[in-house]
Amino acid sequence: MSLRPAMLSIVFVFFLSGCAGIRQPNVGLSVEKISSPTVRVGVAVSTLPKVDTFFPGADCLLCMATASIANSSLTKYTQTLPNDDLSSLGSEVVELLRKMGADAKLIPENINIDSLAQWNPEAVNFAKKNFMPLKEKYGIDKLVFINIYSVGMIRTYASYFPTSTPKASISALGVMVNLNDNTYDWYAPMLVQKATDGDWDEPPKFPGLTNAYFQAIEQFKDGAKKPFKP
Amino acid sequence: MNGVSGYLLGLLLVASSLQSKAADITKIQLDAPAINERELRQSHSTALTSANWALRLPQEKQVSFRGALNTDFAGGGAMHMVYYAPSAAGAVAALITHGLLNSGARKLEMNKLQKEADKVLNPYQTIIQEFNHEELFAMISAARMTVGQTRIALAEEAPSTEWFFTIQPVFSMTQDQKALIADIAVSVFEPSKPAAPSYTNTVRVVSSPVLEVDPLLFWGNAVNPSLKRQGAELVLTALELVIDQATSKKGDAAEEKHLTKNASVQRTVRYIEGGNEKVERAEVLQVHCDRALLRTLRGGLMAVPLKSTHEFEQTGGSRDQNCARLGAPNITP
User: Fold this and answer.
1) What is the DSSP string of B214-282?
2) pLDDT tens-digit map of A109-155
């Protein structure tokens, strides 16, 4: 019986520590931070992920199997969709930065975030990885990095049953890191979802969802470029 | 145990796919057309070129309007369910109950969203309630005759030798009240085969944005309400597009060359819908007078206003200088 208070305390501390993680708020980009020709800005976009389907909410094994089989034709088709239109995003951001007066260049290679060291994870407005070594490596003062997490179709589930129709979806995080002190000059999580105009279940080519997919790509690119428009 | 799991998985798949099929929004949408306008033209070239056209109105008297709806973030979201299942039968009952509740909730949500969207039409209810298909037809017919084109008669009054259309228009007003959109299901019937349409498709026509400061004054003008006038313009534009695509032989060679060169070339097109920029993945059929005619991925036709024709200058699409074909005809009530 004497163990009960101790156990409760451990559980309480566990939950409390779970809540203590600092949530990074959005950081708006201010023009003066990049509009000087003396500021060298590098722009990088993560390797584009495979276009796929996602079923959040179908958590248990049987739920996953049900969702996967019920949407198998959509998944098979989705995986054939091109994501080429996203590949120009980096160079388009570079163009916009140059129009704003920055000395901008595209970082042509993939930046492997996982290979960077952890950095000051408990502070707000500081990157959680140490980006500062990239200053020397690429000869830049600030790094704009757009990390695209997922591209494809999303359909939410409550265990076995869909709670929405499938939608085109892109999720990403856009940041600009000051490589002198590892702070965020821009921090913007991005989520775009586009529903079909009409029915969605049109195998084998799913024209409504295909249209929504390309709409989502354009909407995502517009959103990602918006902070860099003068 | 494996048998029970298999049974459960099968049951879930059936229930899940039934839910998948449930259409959330009632929209005018036909299957992809069996033939396009060009194929219709080529298979009936002699008859179509000289044809007068007749129109059969929808059976419903009143013209259908609704508010344009955005469902991008509709749906219940991802959630975890815990089922109380003391036995296999209890598990099945719990799953069925969940499925039914879930399906009902989704339908309720979509109905609620549509009702909210329809509120944009509240100031115009008087006009909408008195607007019937006969009046719509009268406005279309008068306008078409004033520009010296072949007449359109009511199918019931036309000789049985004439080709005729059936149309089913639904109008949507954008939430910023700056544009009206017509979604029209069009069927074309050959005189000798009045039972089965030779051609069926959907045509969407988006009006040019309203520049007036107060949309209420524009759409709801007591003397000459633009809601009716623009509605008739959009339907007439849709009919003109189908007739034009089905009968025009000029440019067949050029079109053939263009189609051969750009067969099934789909591109992402940006256009204007009210105060917003929209995107459609489509084949560009024509661009002129700051408007574009597109063939959507579903095979439907779509006439939209462009922000600028500049980006289309290098596309190779035929640029017709005759703005009347895709522009707004002069319609008076």
Assistant:
1) -HHHHHT-SSS-HHHHHHHHHHHHHHHHHHHHHH--TTHHHHHHHHHHTTT--EEEEEEETTEEEEEEE
2) 888 888 899 887 678 999 999 999 999 999 999 999 999 999 999 99
Whether B124 shows a pLDDT value over 70: the answer reads: yes
Of A83-97, B24-38, B152-166, least confident by mean pLDDT is: B24-38
Min Cα–Cα distance to chain B from A80, Å:
16
Q: What's the predicted TM-score (pTM) here? A: 0.82
Alpha carbons B246 and B163: distance in angstroms, whole number: 12
Kindly report the average pLDDT of chain B as a whole number. 77
Q: Shortest CB distance from A207 goes to which of B77, B95, B297?
A: B297
Of A48, A49, A52, the closest CA to residue A78 belongs to: A52
- Cα–Cα distance for residue pair B274/B215, rounded to 1 Å: 11
What single-letter amino acid sits at B249? K
Q: What is the nearest CA distance from A120 to chain B, expressed in angstroms? A: 32
Provide the residue count of chain B. 333
Q: Do B279 and A215 touch (CB under 8 A)?
A: yes
Amino acid B223: pLDDT: 75
**Residue B296 at interface with chain A, using a CB cutoff of 8 Å:** yes
Distance between CA atoms of A56 and A70, rounded to whole angstroms?
14
What tokens were used for B14?
């059936």
